[in-house]
Amino acid sequence: MKVLVLNCGSSSLKYRLFAMPEESVLTKGVIEKIGTEDAIHRYGTESEESSLTEPIYDHREALSRVVATLTSKQAGVISSAQEIGAVGHRVVHGGEVFSSSVVLTAEVKESIRAMSALAPLHNPANLLGIEAMEEVLPNVPQVAVFDTAFHQTMPQEHYLYPLPFVLYQRHKVRRYGFHGTSHRYCASRVPALVKHDLSGLKVISCHIGNGVSVTAIERGRSIDTSMGMTPLEGVMMGTRSGDLDPSLHQFVMEREGLSFDELASMLNKHSGLYGISGISGDVRTILEARAKGSIRATLAFAMYEYRIRKYIGAYAAAMNGVDVLLFTAGVGENSPLLRALICSNLTYLGLALDREANEQGTGERIISSPASAIKVCVIPTAEELMIARDAHALVIGLQRDEE
């Protein structure tokens, strides 16, 4: 079965086509600046990529271009759209309704729409892709895979805010967590690396990219995670502030003459590494400036490392220990310096890093020394693969039920 995986933003669309159950990527692509006359469509494989600039005015048109590319004589990898047996969508917020991936129905779409207030920048865009895909491939089953689903195993004392309980009862104000598909995938890879069943392990998973989240995983289940009701809570990130004193909001709004929307933009898009350094939210740029002696870049990186490490310490306490610490996502996978700094201040847990293993090698690997009480792993994330797996499994199950 061919499974098309989609990640739809308000003006962008990322996609990958998988052959399942082989789990091989046939092709991938991204369309940016949807809604304009100069939309950019990049597509191909790791070794060969093509790019095309053309008018693409909405998501339906973008998805039509995707299907046309997949089946074209020049760049195509399938002979016709009928080879696509399932479409898997990344959906950011599933609220309390969805604790696992589901086949999309009218009722599921309404639930996603109802939760748009919890993720106003993401769920409406995800719905755009779902509904556009229904028009482009009307007879193909579609599956929603939720970023929040993995964290629905958190106990109530972990996910509730210490606010009047009526706010939870009326509006479901609580912590939900994100990056769940990534944390779920990486946790599933741990047993193969450490030769121990996940049911007997305490794992701390650090997804460190432009967005950052740390998750405590006990017996394969998320019991706490750093992001909250929105992705703004938690660790300092590329452009997001992470945890703040909530009284700061009113103080800054009054002193700077900001509206709430302007404040929200500042906290989400102009804070974090970017806000402190004044240079960039990209860790690679920060490290280049740090190496050249930039005081603010050095400060930004030190704050970044400290706040990630602080959450790791908190989750070691929450689980009364930790067996495995894993790093994933763009920065987590590719910054030996960040990993080394974090681990050098966790020696009280019995952690000992293997310097050579940390600085060299690629792919899944253990970077702790044999003497370390904690296994430290680098695991490249594969969120799209998890979406393809879920879509494939659900559609196969659907077909069996119909037989």
Summarize the structure.
By secondary structure, the protein is α/β, with parallel strands linked by helices. It has helices at residues 59-70, 106-114, 123-136, 156-159, 165-171, 180-194, 247-256, 260-269, 272-277, 283-291, 295-318, 329-334, 336-344, 355-359, 383-402; strands at 2-8, 12-19, 24-32, 36-44, 49-56, 84-91, 102-103, 142-146, 202-208, 212-218, 221-225, 324-328, 365-366, 375-378.
Can you characterise this structure?
The chain has 403 residues and is of the alpha/beta class. The protein has helices spanning 59-70, 106-114, 123-136, 156-159, 165-171, 180-194, 247-256, 260-269, 272-277, 283-291, 295-318, 329-334, 336-344, 355-359, 383-402; strands spanning 2-8, 12-19, 24-32, 36-44, 49-56, 84-91, 102-103, 142-146, 202-208, 212-218, 221-225, 324-328, 365-366, 375-378. Strands 5-4-3-2-1-6-8-7 form an eight-stranded mixed sheet, sandwiched between helices. Strands 11-10-9-12-14-13 form a six-stranded mixed sheet, sandwiched between helices. Strand 13 (365-366) and strand 14 form a beta hairpin. The longest helix is centred in the last third of the chain and has 24 residues, at 295-318. It is globular, with a radius of gyration of 22 Å. The mean pLDDT is 94. Pathway: Metabolic intermediate biosynthesis; acetyl-CoA biosynthesis; acetyl-CoA from acetate: step 1/2. The record marks 179, 240 as: Transition state stabilizer.
